[in-house]
Amino acid sequence: MINRQLLLTYFYLLIYICLSSGVILYNKWVLSPKYFKFPFPITLTMIHMGFSGVVAFFLVRVFKVVAPVKMTFQIYATCVIPISAFFASSLWFGNTAYLHISVAFIQMLKALMPVATFLMAVICGTDKLRCDVFLNMVLVSVGVVISSYGEIHFNVIGTVYQVTGIFAEALRLVLTQVLLQKKGLTLNPVTSLYYIAPCSFLFLFVPWYLLEKPVMEISQIQFNFWIFFSNAFCALALNFSIFLVIGRTGAVTIRVAGVLKDWILIALSTIVFPESAITGLNIIGYAIALCGVVMYNYLKVKDARASNQLPGESIPERVTKEWKLDKKSSDIYTDDGNNSNNAGNIAGGAASESIVVDEEAPLLPSSRFSYTGRSQVSSHKA
C-alpha cells in the first residue's frame, strides 16, 4: 500500500511538471511571431479566463461539484476585486514578456519571485525584516543580475514586463493572505475560478480594448478553435493538478519539484525554440540565484514546521496529524458543503505558513501552506 501511494504521489508530481512546462511552452508557441503568429497576449489571457470562468460556473451552479462560499458584497468589493486586478495584471505582463524574451530567460527572471514577495510582505506588515532572509534576497538578486548580463538577446522591454508581472503577482499573494485568509475565507481551485476569473476577465477587457483591439485585423488572424481550446484546457488542468499534488505532499517536495521543473523547462525551451540560446554566464547566474531561493525556502519551511509542532507533541503524533490534514484537504470535492467549509477553515488557519503557488497557476491558494516566496506551483501565464 505504501509503494502504491508513493507511486501515485510521484505520478501526480510528473503530471504537474509536464503540465506546467507544457503550458509555458504552449503559450510561447502561440504568441510567438515566428510560429503560430498570434501576438496578442491580452486576448489569449482573456480566452483562458473566460474558459475557466465558464467551467467553474458549471461545476458550482449546474453540476454542484462544490458549494459556493458565503461571499458578501463587502468581501467581494474589498477582497476579490483587488486580488483579481493584480492577478489580471500579473498574467497580462507575464504573457507580454513572451513576445520579447526567451522562455529560458523568463524562468531565470522568475527567481526574483522570493525577493518581490518578501518586499511586499514587509511593506504590508505580514513579514518582518530579518538579516538571514535579507542576505538570501541579496544572493538571489546578484544571481539574476549575472544571468541577465550573460543573456545574448537581452531586451529591456521584455525584462520590464516580466519583472512588473512578478511584483504584481507578489502583491496579489500578499493581498490574498491579508484580505482573504484573515477573514477566514479560503477558496479551493473551483471557487477561486468561479469568483476571480470573471472579474479578471473584466479587468483585462479595458487594456484589450485600448491596446489590442485597434491593431487586430481579422483577415490576418488565424483562429484555430482546437489550438485555443487545448491551450485553455491545459492551463485549467494545471490548477487542478497542483491541488492534487498539494493534497499528497509537503512544501519541501513541491519546491524540489518546482526547481526540477525549472531546469527541465530551460533545457526544453532551447530544443523547442532553437533561437533562445543560453550562455554559461546565464547558467552560473541562475545557479547562484537558485542557491538563494533554496536557502530561503529552507528557512521558511523550518519556521513553519517549528510553529506547527507543539513542545509536547511526538513525531509520530505530528505525522499522523499532518496526514489527516492532507486527507481532509484532498476531500474538498464533495457534495457536502460542510466538508468544503471545514477544509476552508483548515486552510485559513495556516495563513502564517507558506502558500505554494505555481507561476503558471496563480489562482490556486494552498490548502495547507501559505506562500514562502518562490512561485512554485503563472494560469497559465496565462
From TrEMBL:
Keywords for the protein's UniProt record, in alphabetical order: Membrane, Transmembrane, Transmembrane helix
Major localization listed first in the record, in broad terms: membrane
Topology term for the membrane: Multi-pass membrane protein
Protein name: Sugar phosphate transporter domain containing protein
Membrane-crossing residue ranges in chain numbering: 7-26, 38-63, 75-93, 99-121, 133-154, 160-180, 192-211, 223-245, 252-273, 279-299
Ranges where the Sugar phosphate transporter domain occurs: 11-297
Pfam families recorded: TPT
Annotated source species: Cocos nucifera (Coconut palm)
Lineage: superkingdom: Eukaryota
PANTHER family the record matches: SOLUTE CARRIER FAMILY 35 (PTHR11132)
Gene Ontology CC, one term: membrane
Subcellular location(s) per record: Membrane
Upper taxonomic lineage: Eukaryota, Viridiplantae, Streptophyta, Embryophyta, Tracheophyta
